[in-house]
Amino acid sequence: MDQVIVYNIEHHEAMGALIVIYFFLSGLGAGAFLTAAGLRLFGGEKYARIEKTAAIAAPLLLMPGLLCLVIELGKPLRFLNMFFYFNPSSVASWGVWVINIFLAISVLYAFLHVIGKAGIARPLAYLGFVFALAVGFYSGMLLYQMHGHILWHSALVPVIFLVSAIASGLAVVLLLSGSADPDQTHTLSKVLAVVVGVDLVLALTEVLTLTWSSGEKAAAAEIILSGGYGFLFIGVYLIAGLVLPLMVLTRQRTSQNVQVFAAVLVLVGTLAMRYVIVMGGQALPLS
Q: Could you please report the per-residue DSSP string of 11-38?
């Protein structure tokens, strides 16, 4: 007589809350540096004050994020193994080098601003711009290459993580530049509105793609669009973190208080999105 044996397999979470914080803070650091470098390369000297704020913020946001990553490893010395045993086919191996090179660049860039030598930082801005983009893209790419988690294995995930990193970086710089020239913060808020708009289009595209699919993708859509994850993704990320900021920032003229309010919403929404993608992506059983 044939027997059917059923195994109840429970998978532990590969990534926890500390990884969510790491993804969030590394994105903030990358976005802040992109803001600083962008102002240096395209804004001119009139944005020097905001550029300095962004340049100093970048490494200060990135470093606690890296600390969260090291703690999450359980045995911090494992982090050093990634330097000594490089695997060119591993996204994580590339990420360790990219992040640490970016950290060194951002620290040096901030130091030049602190000592009043920002004028010679232009070549560093070009180099850091490239590495900041790579850091913003890397978090999503790390998730994407994990084929077993259907929510993560989407070509849009790395792009969404990069765009949301830029948006959150702009938002945090806008918050820290409250006392700057109103015309300059107004320009910064308009750039933020554009990036938030792109983020919204990408997020809706991803949602519709999952919703119109079948099988595991449909199950993944149900996870992030219902229950607690649904509240965070739809209510906090899409509506509060993207739609509302876009509505207020695209007005002809906004006060600095409104800009601050919109920036806070973008930051909260970005954190909610990262939490839903990381934790919700592990809620779908692997077997």
A: PPPSS-HHHHHHHHHHHHHHHHHHHHHH
